[in-house]
Specification:
The chain is mostly helical and 483 residues long. It is 57% helix and 7% strand. It has helices spanning 29-37, 47-66, 72-86, 105-122, 135-139, 145-181, 201-223, 246-258, 268-273, 276-302, 332-355, 366-390, 399-408, 417-420, 422-435, 439-446, 451-457, 472-482, and strands at residues 9-14, 17-22, 186-191, 194-200, 228-229, 263-264, 313-314, 396-397. The chain has a two-stranded antiparallel ribbon with strand order 1-2. A two-stranded antiparallel sheet has the order 3-4. A two-stranded parallel sheet has the order 5-6.
């Protein structure tokens, strides 16, 4: 291909008139207008969004070729060009800002023009010679932004989620591994940020795994809604300008090309009016983010110190933590996890506002849905991988510190409830707080229980799981009789 100088241009024409655009670009006049109209963020379409649109265009061209609606040579060139878009060969040509005109018309036309110009080139023509392959008449045959954009957006989300799922599985497995590693380490539980009854450090970490697995399951379940596609609905969901068999053929082709289970929705008007699937997935991502924020806060608390905090666990030291305090190490990955998760929560708010803004036969706010959901998936995937590899996998326990807390918690008195009653147990706890003495020491002094009973009832290990109680009723009667 001849290298042209930056000043070289070609002339293109649309319904608004003519315009000079760079001669060697694969996008066309409508894209050029969008670049001028929307210099907003400098951010471009997500690579998976571009890939998904390439797949949609390939599937549509195949269907129209099968139905005899597109010349075979033109269809084959479009299919080849679309495949190259899927492979990322023309990502640099997708230049429309993510914040653009409603419904995503600009991005859609960017796709049509790039594929058309590449098809023109494949057919032996020069860029901009749309007599050989036209962005609207050929690449977009039987299609509308109104059915293509929601289809591409849903498919891109499904594809991007495939990268998130294994990362979530690995993170959950890492927490489970730590749960087993820390199973024998006793510590004080905490509720309301106050001392609570003993538990195992491993139980805390195993619970984190359970939260991650359930969040993943919720996302996967909501993503099933994305598989219903309204491709073929055309402008308002009626299928105008489409062959009766086009819809089924195009979606069948798209399923094969993408490797995703996709089905034609039973009501194309619903698929165009409603973006419930995007709201559901975004909500699932938000809920995952909320769990990650909570867990990252726990990790920071448990590792706080080293001398003036909980210091029950150690996080991997990754970098110096202060420009002024020598030797300070910060919990940088849990901090990262929280900040990324805050962004995901914010993205969900944007998606929610966009989803409710639909009017009549179309929701024009789809570009911000697509950008927000895909960004959330990508940054969650990358962050959670780091949380696993750079943090959770390297967590170690300060067993001595944990043991100190389990002996010191005043909530050991809870185990006495069945034997001496809540009121007397509360008195012992209150005295422990006031004097700084241990629950075991005070219980022994009051001689309400035998030494054997004290050792068994106040054994922290016994408190970390359900066990058959001693004959509590009998013991309480004995104590009452002593009065």
């Amino acid at each position: 291909m001849v290298t042209l100088t930056q000043s070289a241009t070609r002339t293109e024409k649309d319904s608004l008139g003519i315009k000079e655009i760079p001669a060697n670009v694969y996008y066309g006049i409508q894209t050029a207008r969008a670049v001028e109209n929307y210099p907003i963020s400098g951010m471009r379409a997500h690579p998976t969004m571009i890939r998904a649109f390439g797949m949609v265009k390939e599937a549509a061209a195949e269907a129209n070729r099968e139905l005899g609606l597109l010349d075979e040579k033109i269809a084959n060139a479009i299919i080849q060009a679309a495949k190259e878009v899927e492979q990322g060969k023309w990502d640099r040509e997708f230049v429309v800002d993510v914040f653009q005109a409603g419904a995503g018309v600009s991005f859609h036309m960017n796709t049509n023009e790039v594929i058309a110009n590449r098809a023109v080139e494949i057919l032996g023509g020069t860029l901009g010679d749309y007599s050989k392959a036209h962005p609207n008449d050929h690449v977009n045959y039987g299609q509308s932004t109104n059915d293509v954009f929601p289809t591409g957006m849903r498919l891109a989300t499904l594809l991007e989620l495939e990268k998130l799922y294994p990362v979530l599985d690995s993170l959950a497995a890492a927490f489970e591994k730590k749960g087993k590693e820390f199973h024998a380490i006793l510590k004080s539980g905490r509720t309301h940020m106050q001392d609570a009854v003993p538990m195992r450090l491993g139980q805390e970490f195993t619970a984190y795994a359970g939260a991650i697995r359930r969040a993943k399951d919720a996302i996967r379940s909501s993503a099933e809604l994305l598989r219903e596609l309204g491709l073929g609905g055309s402008a308002v969901g009626t299928g105008i300008n489409t062959h009766p068999d086009y819809r089924e053929k195009a979606i069948k082709n798209l399923a094969r090309i993408s490797g995703q289970k996709l089905i034609a929705v039973d009501d194309m008007r619903y698929a165009m009016q409603s973006n419930l699937p995007m709201a559901a997935v975004s909500s699932g991502l938000r809920n995952l983010a909320l769990e990650v924020i909570r867990i990252s806060n726990d990790l920071r608390l448990l590792a706080s110190g080293p001398n003036t905090g909980f210091a029950e666990i150690n996080l991997p030291a990754l970098q110096p933590g202060s420009s002024i305090m020598p030797g300070k190490i910060n919990p940088v990955i849990p901090e990262l996890a929280a900040m990324v998760s805050f962004q995901v929560v914010g993205n969900d708010v944007a998606v929610a506002m966009a989803v409710q803004a639909g009017q009549l036969e179309l929701n024009v706010m789809m570009p911000t849905m697509a950008y927000s959901v895909l960004q959330s998936i990508t940054i969650l995937t990358n962050m959670l991988r780091q949380l696993n590899e750079k943090c959770v996998a390297g967590v170690t326990a300060n067993e001595q510190r944990c043991n100190f807390y389990v002996q010191a918690t005043v909530s050991l008195a809870t185990a006495l409830n069945p034997y001496i009653g809540y009121a007397k147990a509360a008195e012992i706890a209150k005295e422990a707080v006031a004097t700084g003495r241990s629950i075991i020491e005070i219980a022994r002094e009051k001689k309400l229980l035998s030494e054997q009973e004290i050792n068994e009832i106040l054994d922290p290990v016994r408190m970390t799981e359900p066990v058959r109680p001693l004959d509590a009723a009998k013991k309480r009667e004995e104590i009452k009789g002593k009065k």
